[in-house]
Fold:
Amino acid sequence: MPDFSNQLITWQKQFGRHDLPWQNTTDPYAIWVSEIMLQQTQVVAVIGYYGRFMQRFPDVATLADATQEEVLQHWSGLGYYSRARNLHKAAVTIMDAHGGQFPQDFDTIQTLSGIGRSTAAAIASFAFNQIQTILDGNVKRVLARHFLIEGWPSTPSVEKRLWLLAENLLPKQNMVTYTQGLMDLGATLCTRSKPKCSACPLVNSCEAYQQQRTQSLPTPKPRKRIPEKHITMLIFLHGDKVLLEKRPPTGIWGGLWSFPEAEADCNDVDAIESLAKLRFGFSVQANRRLPLLTHAFTHFKLHIQPQSFTVQLVASKACESGQIWLKVEDAIAAAIPTPIRKILQSLQNELQLMRQDGSL
Structure:
């Protein structure tokens, strides 16, 4: 199907994106970092993180030498933290198993943590000019609309059909331009809602456009009731310091710092005071409940009820491994999830007011 690829290549050269921070390079490290960050995250959100990340970790050796804690700190707020953990793990593998050189073999690239077939194809295409097929969410949307493919794109049978189609569309030259063109078309014109069909170079051959079905394709994911979880987060304050705990290495917010937790929507202040003495070794006095905070994950909603306590006496038990007292402003800069940062920023504002009126 040469018309599809040729028209896309022509459009990309004239109208596509050419000045993104990770473009105009064949450095596989820089391309790899950008592709991982762009998984499930829009370009506008990635640009700032990418610049700061590359400044701190300019090459694979620097990334491999860093601690996971520091990598997570520079990822904090970007979400999907398994990406950062996998990035760090893969960097160590590249140093240990590949002599510090990013592998060029397509199958070998896919053995690195966090890299699937489509991401490997993008790296191989942009860094090594290989003819490989990408099929990320944007590309699935473009193909489903253009060729009128029914069914949720992540259904195995539909996805297999899309892979075969994408392979048949590959050009024999201008691979980098074509690959970038596919990404750009899905990101800027063939968007999820309100696609800009009048500016699309493929509009005349797009079957969804001809049948006025651009809004219904691709077929959305079958809806399921999103589970909801309720937790109470315990904010232990000692002067201008707050207690944080490191979360388990896997699961939500794996490896990040957060507040200690109690049972869902715990209203028993006496029980929490007993827990504080038993588990952390200090006495507390309840302050007030902060506003409820809701955070949406991909598969569930988390309702967080923050409860503030003043710690009257800090014992050494609260300084065990995995626990740390930090000034609120320092805690905000640590490797923490976005909801925790929001709570800390609210606390910081309160502490500033208390300093102004002399109550702190």
User: Anything to note?
Assistant: The two ends are 71 Å apart (CA to CA).
